[in-house]
Specification:
Mean pLDDT: 93
CATH architecture: Alpha-Beta Complex
Number of helices: 3
Strand content: 15-25%
Distance between the termini: 33 Å
Strand order of the largest sheet: 1-4-10-5
Length: 237
């Protein structure tokens, strides 16, 4: 695949204000993806088209002295998603970027992430229900050959966002909740601390197709890191 030049300030998509149904009531879905409930995004944000890359993160590390996560596959280059980043590290990256550019960068809330992933859809994936099409939009277990890939090399969703399905799981602001029974409906983050840690969305290069759906979610402690975890950011407008 060709190299994708990432110029962060030019690569954010403003999300339209609106409402959507978050989660699912499908009988074969996991309890943590239920119940389907209406959420309102009544404020202005923009989401990065791409996952934060190794190149992006190295600029931050060089400026701040932060550790650069060691890549298991060094030959992959600088345009793959940065991985093995803890939730707290992603938070510091957002703070550094905010101070450097005079804008408010942060991790997306879980509701914002799903709203952006769905891009107006109400189906299992942003492109519909047909799992056989997933390989056109995502790097996942069946096509990744066990490694991450350059960002932006699969099809974007309807709002122009890449890798919302697959490549790496993405940190969200929220603390994890076992279901959506008592979570916010205004787009804000679930803020009750617990031993389950923080939310991750989107699936990864080593995940089954089912784990790469618009509603799939897992959790990990804020201090955890792994080769299948990365992140993207939003700007408050």
């Amino acid at each position: 695949m060709g190299r994708v030049k990432i110029v962060n300030n030019d690569n954010f998509i403003p999300l339209p204000r609106g409402s959507f149904f978050m989660g699912t009531d499908n009988t074969d879905a996991r309890d943590r993806e239920k119940p389907s409930h209406e959420v309102h995004i009544d404020y202005d944000i923009a989401m990065s088209k791409y996952l934060v890359t190794v190149e992006d993160y190295m600029l931050f590390a060089q400026a701040t002295g932060a550790d650069v996560p060691v890549e298991r596959h060094e030959h992959l280059g600088f345009d793959v998603p940065v991985r093995r980043v803890r939730w707290a590290d992603a938070k510091v990256y957002c703070n550094w970027k905010s101070e450097r550019e005079g804008k408010k960068y942060r991790l997306p809330t879980e509701a914002e992430w799903e709203y952006a992933c769905r891009a107006g859809s109400a189906t299992k994936y942003s492109f519909g229900e047909d799992e056989s099409l997933l390989g056109e939009y995502a790097w996942y277990k069946d096509n990744s050959e066990g490694v991450t890939h350059n960002v932006g090399t699969k099809k974007p969703n309807a709002w122009g966002l890449y890798d919302m399905h697959g490549n790496v799981w993405e940190w969200c602001t929220d603390w994890y909740s076992e279901s959506y029974e008592n979570t916010p409906t205004d787009g804000s983050a679930y803020k009750i601390p617990n031993e389950k840690g923080r939310v991750l969305r989107g699936g990864s290069y080593n995940a089954d197709a089912d784990k790469c759906s618009s509603t799939s979610r897992i959790n990990l402690g804020s201090g955890g890191k792994n080769y299948f975890i990365g992140f993207r950011v939003v700007i408050e407008l």
